Each structure stands twice: as structure tokens, then as C-alpha cells.
Amino acid sequence: MAGLFQDATKQSNPLGTAIRTQGSGKYTFGLALSAGLAGLLYGYDTVSISGAIEFLRARYGLSTVMEGFVISSIMIGAIAGAAAAGFLSDKFGRRRILIIGGGFFFVAAIWSALTVGPIDLIISRMIGGYGIGLTAALAVTYITESAPTNIRGLLSFSYQMLAVCGIFLTNVINYIIASYGSHSWDVNVGWRWMLGLGAIPAAAFLLAMLCSPESPRFLIQVGRTEEGFAVLEHILGTERARLRTDDISASVKLEHEMSKEFHDLFRPGLRKALVIGIFLAVFNQFIGMNAISYYGPVMFADLGFGGDTEFLASASVGGVELVATVIGMYLIDMFGRKRLMEIGTGLMCIFAMCIAAAYAMGSSLLTLIFVMAFTASFAFSMGPIPWIVIPELFPTYLRGRATGLCVMCLLFANWIIAQFTPMMIDGWGGGISFLIFSALDLVCLMGIIALVPETMGRTLEEIEHLWQPKTDMATAKYALSSADANIRHAEATLRRVENERLQAMGIMTMAERSRIAAQKKVFELEAEQRARESQRETAAAAAEAAAEAAEEPESVRDVGMSETQLPPVPMPDIAWPMAVSSPETGIAAMEASPSIDGVLPDEQGPGQTYRTEDEREAQAIDRALDSLDSFIKE
Predict the structure, then answer these.
(1) Per DSSP, which regions of 433-512 are E strands?
(2) What's the rounded Cα separation, in Å, for the pair 173 and 48?
(3) What phi and psi values does residue 346 have, to the nearest 5 degrees?
(4) Read out DSSP for 21-84?
């Protein structure tokens, strides 16, 4: 049997020679966090200007319109960047465009800290916005295309989590800088530090992306299948990577057979996906959270917070958002994207009305509490999930361009909020403004219920098939593609089972050898134990015999003396009446027969002559010793 196992384990492995049984979690999370640092740039810029705008207004005498333009100018560049990101990434790759976007933001952060007037500040923010647009459109796309299906939501959440970290850290930095010097120092120097420190997360993002690989789906799409497989192998392990590579290749082939033009986005099927993507993108901004992010310190100052405590209140709101975002990371792959958006949007609608009521009451404390609750509801639902769902909706060959188009709409909505929120608050007041946001939240909730599909637990290829046109040809090609996919999955299962069988047989062979070695060791130990027991028994018997010999009378012990100890005694020629035939009879004869000085005679039969003196003496001694031994044994 051992030979059979040995022969079986020598068979060739059907999965190849170098096999990763499972992917590297460290590698996968590293990719997600590298691209997710783009969210840190987005979050930092979103809030850094909110801390600086009060000092910029004092330095440059900004009007309400110009104030809104300084804040929203970054979104003008971001819209242009998002519009170009998809086309550029489908041609040059996700990673390369992400690096370029990080470079734009790095230059803009330093430039904005060195500006001397509102015009060049607006230009620098537009350039930074172009980088924001490139990275915002592609970061989640990159994560989505690299992540395993079962944790795709969790990894894509890293973008929003880092964006929230950027918001929270920026609020803290703004508070520290504003508290560091006098108001005059803040007006002349402090705001430059607030804007210029954005170069640090930009440098971290550039370094991370320079060390990251290209998106595996993009590599397979452009024909670099082996490179794409190598990346997927690190993420999924060899077996699942080969299966996923085959699925992506088949999906790309089907896409090319159906069509591969950009106008496919506007045909039936994908047109619905585009509508859902734009809907989620626009309402990510229209629900009112960015009004708090951009103008939080101004709102809290109007409500009575003073002495730089408005920055502390904004930092508190950012802390709540961070905690709720972390909670959402653990819920998204458990409850699903759609359910979380429904719950969060419903709560935001309620809390927006509560904020409006607190404004009407003039209570700054209640307003802060309801703003925190509104922010927490946003952080686990409509904050991160649209960024996750939008790239999931589209096929690989259109994902970059379609996501870029949706993000462009998102940033345009962001620009509208940034431009017109100060006008709304100044003109209508905070109460009416948040009543409007409450109505928009209700519209958002109804749209989510009616339009958005659940994408949790589905591969990107399965989601893509939701939008296939309902023609006979499309249905037939989809059925053919599904059958091929099922065959590939079955073959992969057979390979996995065969590999497991070979591994099990190898384990059995090793176990058999170990069992034989262990049994041999057991036999050796048992033999040693028996030998030790035998030695102990022999020693005990010898000790017992020695003890008994020590207790015998002196006369008996003398009989046992060796020949050299006996004194020479002359033996007379005396005939003995009987022969000693047994220990008992020998002893009886010794007691009944005559003896001279205790020396025993030799046996003497009738008609025999006596032996020589020495022979008789030796024979008598031997016979006495034999009799004594027999007696002791008995």
C-alpha cells in the first residue's frame, strides 16, 4: 500500500508546479489602500478650504459670489479631469493616470500656498481639481477591478474611509493652525499652511501607486493576459486566478462580439445602468452633506460658536463621520449595498428636518447633535456606497469611461452645492436650506428603492449580464457564454478535487512511513523494558538467595565452603550402609551414618574396592554441595 501511495504522489500536478493555494491578504489590502489614498486627497481638499475661507475673505475682501467661486473652482477642474479620466485610462491604464492625477494635486497644493491673489488661487485650485477628477474617477475603479468578490465592498470602502480620515484630520489641522497664532497671523500666513499641507498626502499617494501593479482586468482586456493572471494569482491564489482570468477573457470576447463603442452606453440595457450611475452620483452630493463639509465652521460660527470652537465642532463632526464609516465597512458585505442606502437615506431625511427645527429654535447644541446624527447616517450609506456601486455597474471595456462620466456628474453636482450653498444660507437661512435637503433625501430614497439593483455577492461579469439587450441573438450569445463559464467552473472543480486527492495521498504516504517508524520505536522500547525487568528480577533473586544464605546455621554454611577452605581430613576405609539417592536421603544418611570429623564417605557397592584418598574426598565434597544446592532450591 505504501508503494501505491508513493506512485500516486509522483503524478504530475494538474495545476502546475508553482502553486499559490490562496491569495495574499496583505497584498490585496495593500492595493486597496494604495488607490484609496486618492480619497485622502479628496477629503483633505474638501475641508481644507472650509478652514481657510474665513481668512481668505478677510485678506482679499471676497464677496459671497467670489467666495463660492474660490471654493467651487476646484470642481471645475475636477469635472474636466473626470471627463477625461475614462478615455485616458482605457488607453493608457488605470495606474498610470492615477499617478498623473496625484502629480497634479501635489503641484497645486504647493502653488495654492504661495499665491498672492484670488485669481492665481483659483487657477491653482483648478489644476488641483483636475488631479482630483482623474483620481476620484479611477481609484474605486482600480479597487473594484482588483478585489475578490466576497470583500469587494469592504476594500472599495477604503476610498471613502480615507476620504473621511482626510476630512477629520484636516478639521483637526485647521483647528490647530487657527489656534496657533493671532488672527492677523491666520489672515497672512495660517491659511497658506492649511492649503499647502495637502502636498503630504499627495506625495504618499504617488509613492504608493508607483509601487503598485496595473489593474488585472485592464491587463487582460488589452491582451496582456499573463501579467493580469500574475496579479490575480497574488490576490486569489493560482486556481481561482486561472478561473477568473478565463471568465474575464470570455467576458471581454463577448463584449467585443456584441460591440465595443462608447455609444453602447446609450443603447437599451446599458442605458439603464448609466441612469442608475448618474442618479447615485448626483444624489451623493444633493443630499446635503457637502454643505456641512464646506461651510461647517461658518454655520457653527453663525449659531454662536466662537473663539475657534467652530473648528473644534467641525472636527467633532468629522470624528463621528470616521467612526460611522468604519462601522459601514463591516456592514456593507453583510447587509448589502441597497439596504444600507435605503436605511441611511431615510435617517438623513429625518435628521435634516430635525436640523431645520433646531435652526428655527436657535439652539446651537441641538443643531450640533442633529448634524452629527445626519453625518453618521451619511457615512455608512450614501457617502461611500455610490462610489462602490458605480464602477460595479459597467462592463470592463466601458468601465473607465462610464465611471468617468458618472463622476463628472457627481463633481458638477458638488460644484453646484459649493457655489450656491452660501447663497441659500445667507438668503433663506439654515432652516429652509435643510428642509430642501430633507425633500431631496426623500426623492433619493424613492429612487434607490425603484432603480438600484443589489450587487453584493455578484461578480462583475454577472452584474454585466444584467444590462444585456433582450434580443434573441444577445440571449443566445449570453446562454453560450454562461454555458462556457459553467464548463470552466466544472473543470476547475475537477482540477481542485484531483489536486486535493493527490495531496491527500501524499499525506497518507507520509503518515504510513511515520507509523512504521513509530511502531519500530515502540518495539525497541518494549524490548529494553523487558531486559531491564529481567535484570531487576535476577538481582532480586540473587539478593533473596544471599539473605537466606545469611540466615542458615553455621554448620550448613560450612558445608558450602569451597574446596580450598576445607581442612585436609584423612578418610578411613569404612563401608557405608546405603547410597545417597536424593537430597532427603542424603541428609538422612549423613545423620544416621558414622562420620569422622564431618567428612562424608564415597558410595561403595558390594564387591568394590575403596578409591584413593583424594578421589573419595573430592567425591564426598561434590555430593555434599549438590545435596545442599538441591535443598536450597526446594
Answers:
(1) none
(2) 9
(3) -60, -45
(4) SS--HHHHHHHHHHHHHHHHHHHHHHHHHHHHHHHHHHHHT--HHHHHHHHHHHHHHHHHHHHH
Q: Which residues, 6 or more positions from 621, have their beta carbon under 8 angstroms from its beta carbon? A: 563, 566, 600
Q: Which residues lie closer than 8 Å to 235 by C-beta, 6 or more apart?
A: 23, 24, 27, 28, 31, 146, 147, 148, 216, 241
Dist CA 289 CA 527 (whole Å): 83
Does 64 have pLDDT greater than 90? no
What percent of the chain stands above pLDDT 70? 76
Q: 576 and 593 in contact (C-beta within 8 Å)?
A: yes
Does the pTM surpass 0.70? The reply is no
Q: Which residue has cell 489614498?
A: 37
Cell of 367: 443643531
Q: Which long-range contacts (CB under 8 A, 24 or more apart) does 52-59 make?
A: 52/174, 52/190, 52/191, 52/194, 52/195, 53/298, 54/297, 54/298, 54/301, 55/186, 55/187, 55/190, 55/191, 56/118, 56/121, 56/191, 58/187, 59/187, 59/188, 59/191
Q: Which three cell numbers stand for residue 318?
A: 468629522
User: What confidence tens digit (pLDDT) does each residue in 247-277 have?
Assistant: 788 777 766 665 556 666 777 778 888 899 9
Q: Which of 34-38, 138-142, 328-332, 573-577 has the weakest average pLDDT?
A: 573-577
Asked whether 467 and 272 are in contact (CB, 8 A), the reply is yes
Q: 592 is written with which cell numbers?
A: 544416621
The DSSP secondary-structure symbol of 186 reads I
Q: How far, in Å, CA of 314 to CA of 168, rounded?
A: 8
Residue at grid coordinates 444584467 = 466
- Separation CA 34–CA 615 (nearest Å): 111
599: three-class secondary structure by DSSP = strand
Contact 99/214 with Cβ under 8 angstroms? no
Q: Is 511 exposed, middle or buried (0-12, 13-18, 19+ CB in 10 A)?
A: exposed
Q: Which residues contact 445 (CB under 8 A, 6 or more apart)?
A: 342, 345, 346, 349
